[in-house]
Amino acid sequence: MDRIVFTAGGGAARTLEHQATVSNNLANASSPGFRAQLTQYRAVPIIGAGLATRVGTVAATPGADFTPGPMEVTGRALDIAIQGSGWLSALMPDGSEGLTRAGGLQIGADGTLQTADGRQLLSVDNQPVVVPEGASLTIGTDGTLTALGAGDDPVGLIGLGQLKLSDPNPASLVRGGDGYFRVQGQPLGQPVPADPLVRVVSGAVEGSNVSPIEAMVSMIDNGRRFEMQMKVVQHADTNAERANRLLSAG
């Protein structure tokens, strides 16, 4: 078969992979704390009979865009947004530590402070934060937690510890299928070091850093590229058919 078919077909497959990434980003344009996934193409040598100069193309996702998203003031006591770089730590089902910037917090049925999807947040001593029933929670800029019981005098504030805030090297972060980031190579059970310089804003949440306009433009660009590659395949098929006719006529 004409080699141009393999070339155009491979390009079309990579375009579809890129389109899937862009679609996922666009679908999370309104997800709090979401980090856009990046895609890049790279050449890979083709192993097999023929010259060593033959290469193919693969689409890779080298990481995420860690640019902070817009901050939206909500006034809700359990909403927090991280200023600049930094992460909240949550306890994952396998015992590992997941990092997130989604600061829409809640108090679970078991009284622990949790993320919006039910993951327990960790304190600086790597333990879940337990909030007294009916208490009003206040979160300081350094993640310090204080609670005031219903009807209690303000002097009766109770210290609940401090949220764990970390700031690992972005190059070491890997996104999991659940949307949480992990530190690559971090042994299970070994906590991520806390960073005392990370600060949060109470009563606000950070939005996604995905630009819907840029995502839509990228989707249109991928659609046109895919259409062009399919036309190349069609032309190759037409040329092959004409060649067969000529050979048959002879």
From TrEMBL:
Protein name, as recorded: Flagellar basal-body rod protein FlgF
Short name of one Pfam family: Flg_bbr_C
NCBIfam families assigned to the protein according to its UniProt record, in alphabetical order: FlgEFG_subfam, PRK12640.1
Gene Ontology CC entries for this record: bacterial-type flagellum basal body, rod
Family in the record: Belongs to the flagella basal body rod proteins family.
Flagellar basal body rod protein N-terminal domain location: 7-35
Domain Flagellar hook protein FlgE/F/G-like D1: 81-147
Subunit structure: The basal body constitutes a major portion of the flagellar organelle and consists of five rings (E,L,P,S, and M) mounted on a central rod. The rod consists of about 26 subunits of FlgG in the distal portion, and FlgB, FlgC and FlgF are thought to build up the proximal portion of the rod with about 6 subunits each.
Keywords carried by this UniProt record: Bacterial flagellum, Cell projection, Cilium, Flagellum
